[in-house]
Amino acid sequence: MKKIFLLILLGSSLTMYAQDPEDGLRLSWFAPNGTARSNALGGAMGSLGGDLSSNHINPAGLGFYKSGEILLTPKFLVQQNNFSYLSHNSSSNASKASFGSVGIVFADGQRKNNWTSSAFAITFNQIADYDNHTRFSGRNNFSSYSEKYLEELVHDRADTNAALNNYIFGSSLAFRTYLVDTTANASGAVTGYQSLASLSTGVNQVYDATTSGSYNELAFGWGGNVEDKLYLGASLIMPMINYNRATTYSETDATGNPANNFGGFVFNENFSSRGWGLGAKFGVIYKLESYLRVGLALHTPQLITFRDKLSSDMTTNTEGYAGVQSVSSAELNDGYDGLREYTLATPGKATISTSYFFAAPNKPTQPLGFISADLEFVNYAGTHYYANTYDQASTDYYHALNATIKSIYKNNVNFKIGSELRIDGNWMLRAGTAYYGSPYKDESIKASHWTVSGGIGYRTNHHFIDLTVVNTATKDAIFPYRLNDKPNVYANYTGNRLMFNIGYGIRF
Questions:
Q1: Distance separating alpha carbons of residues 228 and 13, to the nearest angstrom
Q2: What's the domain count of the chain?
Q3: What's the CATH number where 39 sits?
Q4: Each residue of 160-201: pLDDT tens digit?
Q5: Distance (Å, rounded) from C-alpha 131 to C-alpha 78?
Q6: CA distance 473 to 432
């Protein structure tokens, strides 16, 4: 495996640093959700318009509205996960019903100078759902979770007082429970630290994490129509993130030897993150011909301020060395969770798109359907953290974290295509697919999102209903921990998420 270097995490008794490179990636690398119609078309809406998903994809599409509309889109998710870690296979699953998107658009269809029409929309869209369960295990005689604590203490040249008190959400727990202990020279002076984990004979590792929450966007958008030829739009985006993760990580002695001073340890961590911010999206759509459209959309980075909470505890069985020892971060922090505030800038995004409309040979002036495609450019390495305080420790930490993000992530292109066919008057048949390539520079990590979708729609002059099914197949790598002085082990992950989507709208 290619070695991936990661910063050594800093720590103190008054602050906590809980961000990893993966935390930034969860805000940019996913297959976004939208309206039921948009989902059925694989999200290829960049040059289509006339759908409330335009407010989040290309706001110029709002310029196609000439009457008002209200839309509600609930959904139901079924998640199946498969993991392969150190030649051991496992699986987990999760399911839930959730809120999808809701919105309203007000349109002015009266011609004003060169403006044929204009529209203003307010939409709330859950673009990503974080509800999931990750669990994998395997036997490892190469590295141990405890080594991340050794790296931290050695890097900081921590004395025993610092090891006891300055890393209350990680290394101090390991030190106080004797998972990590000092080494001394012949005169008794502390010369370093050692782990009690029995790497030479191997440890049985188990990683178990339950996540919940969502990434939502509240959007206020405007779109205008010039001579039914040129469409312009812009939207103000207010991202709102709610993310929770409960993680249990354990290692046990693979030999079961009760006399080697290591029976195992269990580390529990509860992490929550709440964020809100601002961003903007701009777009243009142009009709080259009545049957051919092109579109361009630019999404600025979203600046999101987060407030995180963290608590953790550890229990270590050292057998005859010191027995069973337990300690929690609350005991070392006057009963409080750790708090941290910071700002994150998500990657910018650019989308170019085109749509081709076709008609039946016997009715050339009446569109029968269309094919639409989007190319999306995303700078995953552009995720950037900023400290909300100006102490040197925070500045150094986020500088190192940003450098790590640039070293392990890259830019990439996502592709979406969808088609709609009108059948039997008011009925529409839809299908689509989208591919989101790997954000990792390491070519040995096989990662992607691939969606395949389909649906039907029924429309009258005042009402419409859309039914959609989307399957998202995901490949990814999950790192239970990261080390600086060894290649990192990870679980190969494959998952399938099946989403059932219903959209109901009223025109006015």
A1: 62
A2: 1
A3: 2.40.160.60
A4: 999 999 999 999 999 999 999 999 887 777 888 999 999 989
A5: 10
A6: 14
